[in-house]
Amino acid sequence: MSATPLNSLDLPMAPRDTRVVVAMSGGVDSSVVAALLKDQGYDVTGVTLQLYDHGAAVHRKGACCAGQDIHDARRVADRLGIPHYVLDYEDRFREAVIDRFADSYLAGETPIPCVECNRTVKFADLMRTAVDIGAHVLATGHYVSSRLLPDGRRGLFRAADPDKDQTYFLYATTQPQLDMLRFPLGGMTKSQTRELARHYGLAVAEKSESQDICFVPNGGYADLIRKLRPEAATPGDVVHVDGRVLGRHDGIIRFTVGQRRGLGLAGGEPLYVVALDAARAQVIVGPRTALLTRRVKLRDMSWIGDGAWDDLPAGGLDVAVRVRSTRAPAPAVLRRRDGVAEVELAAGEEGVAPGQACVIYDGAGPEARVLGGGVISRAPREALADAASGARPDGRPAPAAGRQAGA
């Protein structure tokens, strides 16, 4: 007797018998996912999360998971004839995402709240809700791909469109979560998605992209953090990597690693923020050469590659990594030293900021597989010492600061 063939979601059952919960943010991507799966005959239920309510933010163009977006998701569900529920996750979102975002900034880091939101609220709390209502899968509008591996697990892969790939924000997905998740847009471009939205007559077909950080009105990170953590606006010194005090600042929350403008320093050589010392309330600046990093250590390591994280080869594993969402994967070596993940970047990277993610792939090519990743720890002080002495991280003398900064 032949085995039951797999449906388009890789499950051995008829679409009509497959219950799918679609996480509907109110944008065009998740709306098209709901329409596609409904059109394919699946038993689709839409769920929208009410995550925050920050007054003007809920009406802001590009906001998500609040106000107008909930209304848009409901309209799409009505158009498709599917059940739709709105779940109030404001308290959970504040605790798991907003509070951690503020605390990370206070520690001198540059956090990525989207990673934490996906890892906790969307792919943990929402998934439990999906299981409770009998769903077989949870589908989202992310531009990533997942495929069955030879051992029956699912692997996470970069999207076909590298300009839309969102694996950087999903590296912390666990294997059990990945096995239940589906990403129908992984093989599409944004223009193809919008064309489908028009085909299905969805009112959100021309809706603009959502912002990465949905809960920060007008990008005012410092204002939000100061409101949540009044102690955040502690003034301190702006210090050159060679130890000279160059000026004063009114709070490290107004600065990020790699920043050049808005330092409040008069004339002289072009300077960049190379580190933030929260304990001393110092903004540390230096020439562009001081931004180059060749090694980073990771904390809160996630691993969805083959085998166990503990079983890495003694000499390390050749991989490709991304230390910024806007950068392509670059060659690196992943090692495990005393239980800590360490990444050696083959060509070095500028502006590596603590708190950002380092996402690990099995290669640098299109549709590469995600092996895992972690949070970048604070830049080692020895790197700053090298910069102050004029040495490169590889031990060679650094070029003249003015010439390098102007390159």
From TrEMBL:
Query: What InterPro entries does the record point to?
Result: MnmA-like, MnmA-like_C, MnmA-like_central, MnmA-like_central_sf, Rossmann-like_a/b/a_fold
- Tell me the ranges covered by the tRNA-specific 2-thiouridylase MnmA-like central domain, including all copies: 232-286
Stretches the record annotates as Disordered: 384-407
Q: Which GO molecular function annotations are given, in alphabetical order?
A: ATP binding; tRNA binding; tRNA-uridine 2-sulfurtransferase activity
Q: Which residues form a coiled coil?
A: none
Keyword vocabulary terms for this entry: ATP-binding, Cytoplasm, Disulfide bond, Nucleotide-binding, RNA-binding, Transferase, tRNA processing, tRNA-binding
Q: Reaction catalysed by this chain?
A: S-sulfanyl-L-cysteinyl-[protein] + uridine(34) in tRNA + AH2 + ATP = 2-thiouridine(34) in tRNA + L-cysteinyl-[protein] + A + AMP + diphosphate + H(+)
The Gene Ontology CC terms held by the record are: cytoplasm
The disulfide bridges present are C117-C214
Where is there biased composition of kind Low complexity? 387-407
Q: Where is the tRNA-specific 2-thiouridylase MnmA-like C-terminal domain?
A: 296-376
The EC code for this enzyme is: 2.8.1.13
**Gene3D superfamilies, per the entry:** Adenine nucleotide alpha hydrolases-like domains (2.30.30.280), HUPs (3.40.50.620), Translation factors (2.40.30.10)
Cell location: Cytoplasm
Question: Pfam families this protein is in?
Answer: tRNA_Me_trans, tRNA_Me_trans_C, tRNA_Me_trans_M
User: Location of site Interaction with tRNA?
Assistant: H142, Q356
Entry-linked CDD domains: MnmA_TRMU-like
Which sites bind ATP? A23, M24, S25, G26, G27, V28, D29, S30, L49, G141
Catalytic residues at C117 (nucleophile), C214 (cysteine persulfide intermediate)
Signal sequence span is: none
Q: Give the GO biological process terms.
A: tRNA wobble position uridine thiolation
Q: Which PANTHER family match?
A: MITOCHONDRIAL TRNA-SPECIFIC 2-THIOURIDYLASE 1, TRNA 5-METHYLAMINOMETHYL-2-THIOURIDYLATE -METHYLTRANSFERASE
The text of the family note is: Belongs to the MnmA/TRMU family.
Entry function? Catalyzes the 2-thiolation of uridine at the wobble position (U34) of tRNA, leading to the formation of s(2)U34.
Q: What is this protein called?
A: tRNA-specific 2-thiouridylase MnmA
Species of provenance: Camelimonas lactis
